[in-house]
UniProtKB/TrEMBL annotation:
InterPro entries: A-amylase/branching_C, A-amylase_C, Alpha_amylase, GH, GH13_cat_dom, Glyco_hydro_b. Pfam families: Alpha-amylase (PF00128), Alpha-amylase_C (PF02806). This is Alpha-amylase. SUPFAM superfamilies: (Trans)glycosidases, Glycosyl hydrolase domain. The gene is LOC103751580. CDD domains: AmyAc_bac_euk_AmyA.
Length: 511
């Protein structure tokens, strides 16, 4: 009996850090601004067959409709109610998506915007995705309901109610982030109202939540909400499963608030990861890939089992939030594929792949003045994600997760799961290689000259298909073949002008 109790305790205390992906699925994808109907289809036709563990969706609750600028993506971070009703779809479509994705073992993680409601400057009225009336001026959100009592105006100590100084932890939590009406999460009514919204989603079948703007909520207030949450729906999750929690906290160091304050609630986004990896791949500030030998905690990142990692996210791929110019995105495709490949091969953190849409970037004084542009749409109606004959996406959707190099590295991560980081090699510059136990091996050439080396892979002897340049199809390789000898070594030749100057092999790409 004692053992059972101990096991259940271990399960319990690990729970909110556990994404509850189906066994053998180790990465999730952010299908930014996708419609629920398209996500349901993508789960069945692509994500399940290719071993994706789950999907982070855009905020599903009713938001303020912003017409100046015209329907920006960020209007979805301005809640007006907790009705499941947005440009991505309605409650019925949401339930259908969660059911169909769960039924093929692909989880749904909800982007929960619970720190605030809409901008304090928004006009009163029914300019909202579900027609709800609201009046920011007097803090009136009757469709929740929230009123003046439920906001932090009285608690914030700054003269204009806005966050002015990120070195004052109290105002970062109690004042308005860019004018967004700050909810009083210290009040039980607000905590309960938020928990009711999240429990509605849990009962539909979601696996967990991204907590937006967590830095702007007291860790204790977040915990008070989480303690009110139901266990996950036993239709798809084992009894007693707790919602997976990852908190958006931007901590690049140097501020009053640090990520570690939030570890007790769940995982935390590690923004240092993408910022540093971008700098290394771009070879800025004297950085080089040889320094990645101790990547992870060795670079000052949070413990791996608390980290949610990504190369770029919806904010910093367009200059919002943190990371700056070093962030690699689909606009920098060649380096981006290498960075995502490195992330998915390396054991550090729980990995999230970005899936974007294109927009007409237009730089003025180094800033993209079109950073606000929303998803592909027809007069505000989000366009369907069309799939081309070559499996890429149409209608302006980028679908990085469908790029062969990224799709195959998601499978690589699944194959090497729980295998140790091994057989590191580097040339002292930007040619590096490493393996994962005896299951996988990856080689990068980011130097301006070719790589030509015989390396210890740690893999069983045999002929392997490189999953970057091609696929293993019908018992043959459509790309480069790698021959591993009985002693585990293999010869690698990578031109610095190759389309993708990296090679990855694993035991399931072996002929
Ligand atoms: C403007 C003025 C304010 C004024 C206000 C009055 O700037 O001074 O008080 O009007 O209403 C949009 C506009 C912004 C506007 C605001 C409120 O860009 O100019 O304020 O709306 O009307 C996204 C965008 C923001 C956007 C916000 C709400 O990035 O530009 O603001 O959505 O629509 C910090 C946080 C971190 C945050 C990051 C962006 O620590 O948590 O900034 N990241 C998350 C999300 C992000 C989202 C928010 C938080 C807010 O990832 O996408 O911001 O929910 O680092
Ligand atoms: Ca707050």
């Amino acid at each position: 009996m004692k053992l059972l109790l101990l096991l259940s305790l271990i399960g319990f205390c690990w729970a909110q850090y556990d994404p509850h992906t189906q066994y053998g699925r180790t990465a999730i994808v952010h299908l930014f601004e996708w419609r629920w109907a398209d996500i349901a289809k993508e789960c069945e036709r692509y994500l399940a067959p290719n071993g994706f563990g789950g999907v982070q969706i855009s905020p599903p609750n009713e938001n303020s409709v912003i017409n100046n600028p015209s329907r920006p993506w960020w209007e979805r971070y301005q809640p007006v109610s907790y009705k499941i009703c947005t440009r991505s779809g309605n409650e019925g479509e949401f339930q259908d998506m969660v059911t169909r994705c769960n039924n093929v073992g692909v989880r749904i993680y909800v982007d929960a915007v619970i720190n605030h409601m809409c901008g304090s400057g928004n006009p009163a009225g029914t300019s909202s995705t579900c027609g709800s009336y609201y009046n920011p001026n007097n803090r009136d959100f009757p469709s929740v309901p929230y009123s003046g009592w439920d906001f932090n105006d009285g608690k914030c100590q700054t003269n204009n109610g806005e966050i002015q100084n990120y070195n004052d932890a109290a105002q970062v939590r109690d004042c308005r982030l860019s004018g967004l009406l700050d909810l009083a999460l210290g009040k039980d009514y607000v905590r309960t109202t938020i928990a009711n919204y999240m429990n509605h989603l849990i009962d539909i079948g979601v696996a967990g939540f991204r907590l937006d703007a967590s830095k702007h909520m007291w860790p204790g207030d977040i915990k008070a909400v989480l303690d009110k949450l139901n266990n996950l729906n036993t239709k798809w999750f084992s009894e007693g499963s707790r919602p997976f929690i990852y908190q958006e906290v931007i901590d690049l160091g140097g501020e009053a608030i640090s990520s570690s304050e939030y570890f007790g609630n769940g995982r935390v986004t590690e923004f240092k990861y993408g910022a540093k990896l971008g700098t290394v791949m771009r070879k800025w500030n004297g950085e080089k890939m040889a320094y990645l030998k101790n990547w992870g905690e060795g670079w000052g990142f949070m413990p791996s089992d608390r980290a949610l990692v990504f190369v770029d996210n919806h904010d910093n791929q367009r200059g919002h939030g943190a990371g700056g110019a070093s962030i690699l995105t689909f606009w920098d495709a060649r380096l981006y594929k290498m960075a995502v490949g490195f992330m998915l091969a390396h054991p550090y953190g729980f990995t999230r792949v970005m899936s974007s849409y294109s927009w007409p970037r237009y730089f003025e004084n180094g800033k993209d003045i079109n950073d606000w542009v929303g998803p592909p749409n027809d007069n505000g109606v989000t366009k369907e994600v069309t799939i081309n004959a070559d499996t890429t996406c149409g209608n302006g959707w980028i679908c990085e997760h469908r790029w062969r190099q990224i799709r195959n590295m998601v499978a690589f991560r699944n194959v090497v799961q729980s295998q140790p980081f091994a057989n590191w090699w580097d040339n002292g510059s930007n040619q590096v290689a490493f393996g994962r136990g005896n299951k996988g091996f990856i080689v990068f050439n980011n130097d301006d000259w070719s790589l030509s080396s015989t390396l210890q892979t740690g893999l069983p002897a045999g002929t392997y298909c490189d999953v970057i340049s091609g696929d293993k199809i019908n018992g043959d390789c459509t790309g480069i073949k790698i021959y591993v000898s009985n002693d585990g070594t293999a010869y690698f030749s990578i031109s610095n002008s190759a389309e993708d100057p990296f090679i990855a092999i694993h035991v399931e790409s072996k002929l």
